[in-house]
Design a protein that fits this description.
The structure holds 2 protein chains of 2 kinds. By secondary structure, chain A is of the alpha+beta class. Chain A is about 50% helix and about 25% strand. Chain A folds into 4 domains: about 200 residues, Multidrug efflux transporter AcrB transmembrane fold; about 80 residues, 2-Layer Sandwich (Alpha-Beta Plaits); about 80 residues, Hypothetical Protein, Haloacid Dehalogenase-like Hydrolase, Chain: A, domain 2 (2-Layer Sandwich), CATH 3.30.1240; about 160 residues, Gyrase A, domain 2 (2-Layer Sandwich). Chain B is about 65% helix and about 10% strand. Chain B folds into 2 domains: about 200 residues, Up-down Bundle (Multidrug efflux transporter AcrB transmembrane fold), CATH 1.20.1640; about 120 residues, Alpha-Beta Plaits. The chains are: A alpha+beta, B alpha+beta. At the A-B interface, helix 9, strand 21, helix 13, helix 15 and helix 16 of A face helix 4, helix 6, strand 5, helix 8 and helix 10 of B.
Amino acid sequence: MNRYPLGAYLLVAFALVASVLYTAPNFFGEVPAVQISVLKPTVKIDAGVMGIVEQTLKTNLLTSDGVFTDPDSIKIRFKDTDSQLKARDALERALNPASDNPSFILALNLISDSPKWLSSIGALPMYLGLDLRGGIHFLLQVDLQAALGKRLDGQAGFIRNSLRDKKISYSGIARDGMSLVVKFRDAAMRDKAQREIETIAPDLQLRTVDETTEFRIIGTLSLQAQKDTQKSALDQNITTLRNRVNELGVAEPIIQQQGADRIVVQLPGVQDTARAKDILGRTASLEVRLVEAHAGDPGSRDYDPQKIEAALKGNIPFGMELFSGRQGERSETLLLSKNVLLTGERLTNAAPTFDQQDHRPVVSIELDGQGARIMRDVTRDAVRRRMAILLIEKGRPEVITAPTIQSELGGRFQITGSRSTREASDLALLLRAGALAAPMDIVEERTVGPSLGAENIKIGFHSTWIGFALISAFMISYYGVFGVISVVALAINVLFLVALLSMLQATLTLPGMAGIALTVGMAIDANVLINERIREELRNGNSPQASIHAGYERAFGTIIDSNITTLIAGVMLFLLGSGPVKGFAVVLCLGILTSVFSAVMVSRSIVNLYYGNRRKLDRVSIGQIWQAGAERREGAAKQ
Amino acid sequence: MRHALIFNVISVITFLIAVGSLATRGLHLGVDFTGGTVMEVNYAQAPDLNKIRDVISKMGFVDAAVQNYGTSRDVLMRLPVKPGVTSAKLSEQVLDEICKAEAGNRSTAYNDVCPQVVRSRCEAEAKDKNLPAKDICPAGLKKDEEAALTLRRVEFVGPQVGKELVENGALALLFVSLGIVAYLALRFEWKFGVAAIVANLHDVVIILGFFSIFQWEFSLSVLAAVLAILGYSVNESVVVFDRIRENFRKMRRASVTTVIDNAITRTMSRTIITHFSTQLMVTSMLIFGGETLHYFALALTIGILFGIYSSVLVASPIVMWLRVTREDLVKPEKKATDIGAPI
């Protein structure tokens, strides 16, 4: 008798049901959708935006087929491309009233047409790689050495200024590779300077080198400072890239760090490499200007609502420009001087921290020596005036903050007034965007056209399907009923694998599809092992039921051993492979897991259900068993 | 086991040929490993490859390769890394030149040959000037499907990345081998681990040898296939070893040679059926998988064919010559709990 405990049957049944559910979205196809995401870092998706979207759809008599929101985007599904296009145009007008200065990106996208309840349990179609859906893949290398060098240069200027202020005479200060060398004529000055540098530049590790006529302090960035600088340079570049990619209107871009100093950018569906590269390679700049008139805080100088009113009507005084900026939640109009005080090159660091006194989030700014001097000269006469910081991207300036100058400022100061740490870090990122981006190079690029992608899907699907049919035909003709059971187990294996890939949202590539095919080819091994074992037990004269039992039991150890070796290869491929190979490795590893389960548990369940309950089982259908030949070999072996 | 010596001699000879070819001819490494640019262009009508070659060599590429890919209308161009020219510029320039050349050949307008290029340029310009695209783009621009040539694929790999991929590939091969030896040593005995890995590295060398002799392109996906084969054909050895262990327990009086012979004979049908099934799938990939999967499937085919023979006829003799004994596997105190023990 071969019976499984109820629990085992339930486990198999549960796995089957779950797999069918998670595989299902792959069969529903895709429908047109409009995807709204924020373009400006100062804008967020909130209830207000949702309201505008709903209102716009209602007034244009457009019915959506479901609205999906997440913190960064809204996806609206439509029945046909006609209403998709109409909705895009209507929403574009509603959300971006000023077409030369858009706040949102509206991208046309295709999303799964699966019922809402399926999406709500997280059942999504497989995530297709770029080689299957078409698009652009870039690997960018960030020059972190350059970022460190820039930071050291900043420190050099800072030290130069401070020594000059303290009247400590030095004979030279220069950067030599990744260290800063300050030279002195006598040891006393050197010691005095060392104490000074220790307090003003805590990020530097100092050591002294003395020669007969020259005394030196050599400063290198501490490990922690190096790490921080590199991390912020990378974060900075990722943020900048994200903002720029957003501008391209790509529905599902991927921008993430890879390794220590690389960034992957994947733009599905984008065909125009030249334009993408142009936009990704663009640089932003930063300007600091004084505010000449504003209508914001009456406590600051130049509070002049009338002047702003007049300027809005077109009466802009000579040497000034009108800008609308955002201060926290509300936007305001400012009249700025055309005179640029500082540019981004003078900024050496901008980081979110907390105020020493009241522990509120602030952004601390560091300027280089020249910047500090200018800042001091300007702010001495400008206390209580406001200073606007503009970020200029693609020739389009935007006021990112306009704080009031509280006192004379130097090379280091703080911008207060951030309401949350998030706001402070956003502001710091924006400031760095215009100043501190480390240089990047494209070190890898892969572009796949959409027709090639669709062809690859077809190819992968065909070859798997034909291979599967061939194997099925062979197994059934060779093993009879057990062949049918093996084929069913194999089909269920494919189902499990597809379900698992959909569930994990692992990226499916063409090598990944080859991996599915190969897994099918290899998974049959477990079934063959079992069937051969059962045959052998029968050949040895055991009863069918006992043979089935022994066949499964004995084959199990072998199946595990042989699959673990392949799993070792798969895991290594995953760890060391890149791009398409990684996709193959994921499928290979998952395929091994599902094939062990389906060959052992699922096929056993079917056998048990089919044969297990028969009290009298004289023969099982497992193909030809060569009785005589087997005995002869047995005899030979026993001699 | 009688023929073990003959088979091992054959192994050694094929192995030496493979090693010889690898040493003298080396592998034809793909762009993944060498760095460079690959462009795939689809022409509406079969183009004259020599004309395209002329265009490319006029641009200053010495080692560029231009060949058909799959059909006579698909052209694959391999361009070496050119110092000072970024990948962005390179693929654009090449596309621009071949568009011009094709327009010249057909004596038609550039716009009709490559509307894709024209459109992306004018749309970018329109976006920058904030005008509708139709004001700037030339009227009557053809659809992409009607273009005389379309860019299907561009791959650029920087030399640094290529070098890393070679290193990672070698590391992967090393770690997979070590991992398998360690696992087999744990599960069986070190002699089996060594035998299995020798047998299967011999497969790997033979696959590489084939790629070297015929100068087939060795790409990342071929490397993946080679590693998959390493894992897969160790399977074979494991199945035979499992039987050897079981036979040592059952056939108490038999000699070591008889035990191994019997294990091989008994697992033979399974080995052939499994390999046949896997090969059915791989053949389907080889025939229907297109150019992209061609060499991947080819590497798998060689691996599977040699895998049958090596695990059976190379691994087992090595185990024998390493003087495996009954005591190596059948440890008295563990006998009852081991999987596969007689019931």
